[in-house]
Amino acid sequence: MSEVRKQERINCDIIFNKVESGMMTICRATNISLGGMRVERLLEPFDAKDEKVRLEIELPGDSEPLLIGAKKTYDAQGHFGLKFTEISHRHFVRLRDWVHGQNAPIHLPAFR
Fold first, then answer.
1. Per-residue pLDDT of the chain (112 residues; tens, 9 = 90+)
2. Nearest-angstrom CA–CA distance, 84 and 74
3. Which value, to the nearest 10 degrees, does the dihedral of the CA atoms of residues 6, 11, 100, 52 take?
4. What are phi and psi of 81, to 5 degrees?
5. Of 100, 112, 12, 101, whose CA–CA distance to 57 is shortest?
6. CATH superfamily of 10-101
7. What is the pLDDT of residue 21?
8. DSSP secondary structure string for all residues of 37-94
9. CA-to-CA dists, residue 17 to 2, 3, 112, angstroms
């Protein structure tokens, strides 16, 4: 099974909070796009029970966290993939501007 990504992912090193089953854990994003991210586990056991998670991501150089709903796309021993499913327009614009500032190609209109 091959997966087709609609957005280019860029490498990153972002520590963030993930809320799953009422428990908040710290994770590390190793790449990110406008549609999702690859995450490494830091201080949590392997647990693939819940598909839906809430994220609190503070982008480098930004002081207000992005609040994002996401769904697990795969789950392996040390890492997992997330697809963003819920994000406000304001937070999407901030994410888009940050990704664009990292020189990633963006294939979306520049709406505000």
1. 445 556 678 899 999 999 888 888 899 999 999 999 999 988 766 555 667 899 999 999 888 999 999 999 988 878 889 999 999 999 999 999 998 888 756 555 555 5
2. 13
3. 50
4. -110, 145
5. 12
6. predicted glycosyltransferase like domains (2.40.10.220)
7. 82
8. EEEEESS-------SEEEEEE--TT--SPEEEEEEEEEE-SSEEEEEEEEE-HHHHHH
9. 29, 26, 27
Domain ranges of the chain: 10-101
CA–CA distance from 74 to each of 9, 19, 23, 26, 93 (Å)? Answer: 16, 17, 20, 18, 26
Lookup: tokens for 45: 């056991």
49-70 burial string, b = 16+ CB within 10 Å, else e? Answer: eeeebebebebeeeeeebebeb
Return the number of other C-beta atoms located less than 10 Å from residue 16's C-beta: 19
